[in-house]
Structure formats: C-alpha cells, structure tokens
Amino acid sequence: ALFLGGTANIDANAALWALSSLLHALPDIATPDARLPVALDLLARHGLSRASLAAPGSARAALVRDQLATLRGEMQGAQGVVSTRTLALRVRMRADDWLIGQALRAPDPLAHVATRSDPRRLRGLYFAWSEARAATRGR
Fold this sequence. Notes:
The chain is an all-alpha fold and 139 residues long. Helices cover 62% and strands 0% of the residues. The chain is built from six helices and no strands. The chain has helices spanning 10-25, 40-45, 58-79, 87-105, 109-115, 121-136.
C-alpha cells in the first residue's frame, strides 16, 4: 500500500507533499522566528526584507501572489507525471489548488491562506467524494 503496487512515482508524490507543506507554511512569513517558506530571490525581486514581511502591504501581497503562482505551476507539473496517488494526496492537491485560486483573487492573499487553509467540511467532503469517484473510474 505504501508504494501503491509499484505504480507510484515516489519522487513526484513527495514533491507534491513538499509543495503542499510550503503552501500551508506561507502564513509563517509574518512571524520573524519561523522558517521562511519563500525563496530569497523572491524577496529581493520585490524589494522586501524579512522584517518587512510582518506588515501587510501591496509589496507583500505581490510577493505572496508570485509564490502562490510558482507553487501552483510546480504542483501542476508534478501532477503531470504519471503516478498512482493515494486518495489523501489527491484530495490535498484538489483542496490546495482551490485555496491558491481563491487566494490569488483575494485583496490580501496571505490572510486568505492563513484563515482558509483547510477546506470547509462540505467542500472537503465534496473533494474527497469526487476524487474517490475519479479514482474508481481510473482517472
């Protein structure tokens, strides 16, 4: 069960879990002592320092949007690798994609990720049901 009968691409699945972890660690950028889940070149591109991330503003929002777009692109790339995935991973990727899409449209994307990192019960149930159904159909 761990290796899904040899049909799983362990590297692609591990990358998806790592990318999801980076997404859910993103609200920590406002905490000075936490690990920084953003590349340093992204900070430089937006002219921000670690200390300036604590205050909301247009530069921080732009940085977060860039990070979200990068995460979404990497997730889509890893999902494009042929692999059998567990239902938990499939649901997590679906919920993460939904969260990124919502956050990209929000005025303060960091606050959106921080307050809505877990899908609401009915939405999570729907994601699980639709992914289980897709898995039984072989998609």
